[in-house]
Specification:
The protein has 284 residues and is an alpha/beta fold. The chain contains 10 helices and 7 strands.
Length: 284
């Protein structure tokens, strides 16, 4: 594995960090995308000398260009794999979402992924390498209070499906990883934002959605996720298997979402509604 180079975005914490450290342990030469030098220092403490922190902000074109140039110069222009993990999350009923926050989330989760793939694709094609895009169970099933995050992950699914076919002729594989509940800081940050926004809701919207808002606040406090190593394991499989899968479901919640998503629409909505409290006049 020593000659196989992997770039991972969003490697400062959570899934990205776990993937970077695990692939490093497996013998890959890992360029771990971080936004702050201090994050890189912490990674170095936990990894071998092969792991190289790489300043890479997926929302900054100059940062992406510099990171690409650094990898190209170090590798001679060939890159075995790109793992697109950088992402943020937030939620709430659609009526009360902040549009600026939605735009910011799409910049990271979707536009940033497009930009990074475009920049590194020539090196991956040259190496006949692999791309792994981290999606979510929210890319399988759109659920109440998660419309914006689900929309961003549905977009990841769409771009990945198109990209897989576009790169087939170049012998480049594209895999999608769909984790369910995972114990990662992305949810801590998202919960903090969402709880703040939900607690600030007053007036008619609060009266109409009251029980639903209270339910969502309780749900956000009870996010017992699985270990990040589960995701790192399937990413490793996608990079080492002779025939990597197109999709990897990770965890029971992801498998449940995949099952519900295949139900007829009316039945699917009924199943989701049965899991929610009654709220508003429409459901009285």
């Amino acid at each position: 594995m020593d000659s196989k180079v992997v770039v991972i975005t969003g490697a400062s914490t959570g899934i990205g960090k776990a993937c970077a450290l695990w692939l490093d342990k497996l013998g890959f030469l890992v360029y771990a995308g971080i936004r702050r030098e201090t994050d890189g220092e912490q990674l170095r403490k936990d990894a071998s000398d092969r792991l190289i922190p790489l300043v890479l902000d997926v929302t900054d074109a100059n940062s992406i260009a510099k990171a690409t140039d650094a990898v190209r110069e170090a590798t001679g222009g060939e890159l075995f794999a790109l793992v697109n993990n950088a992402g943020i999350a937030s939620g709430g009923p659609l009526e009360m979402l902040n549009l600026d926050e939605i735009r910011a989330m799409f910049e990271v989760n979707v536009i940033g992924m497009f930009a990074v793939i475009q920049s590194f694709a020539p090196m991956i094609r040259k190496a006949r390498g692999r791309i792994v895009n981290i999606s979510s169970n929210s890319g399988l099933l759109s659920t109440p209070a998660m419309s914006s995050y689900c929309a961003s992950k549905f977009a990841v699914e769409a771009l990945s499906d198109a990209l897989r076919v576009e790169l087939h002729a170049f012998h480049v594989s594209v895999s999608i990883v769909q984790p369910g509940n995972i114990d990662t800081p992305i949810w801590d940050k998202g919960v903090e934002t969402s709880v703040s926004a939900l607690n600030d809701i007053t007036g008619e919207v609060r009266r109409e959605y009251g029980p639903f808002i209270d339910f969502m606040l309780e749900e956000t406090r009870d996010n017992n996720g699985g270990p990040v190593q589960e995701v790192a394991d399937v990413v490793a499989h996608a990079l080492t298997a002779k025939r990597p899968r197109y999709r990897y479901l990770v965890g029971e919640k992801a498998r449940l979402y995949a099952f519900i998503a295949k139900l007829p629409t009316r039945l699917r909505d009924w199943v989701i509604l049965k899991s929610l409290p009654k709220y508003g006049r429409a459901l009285d």
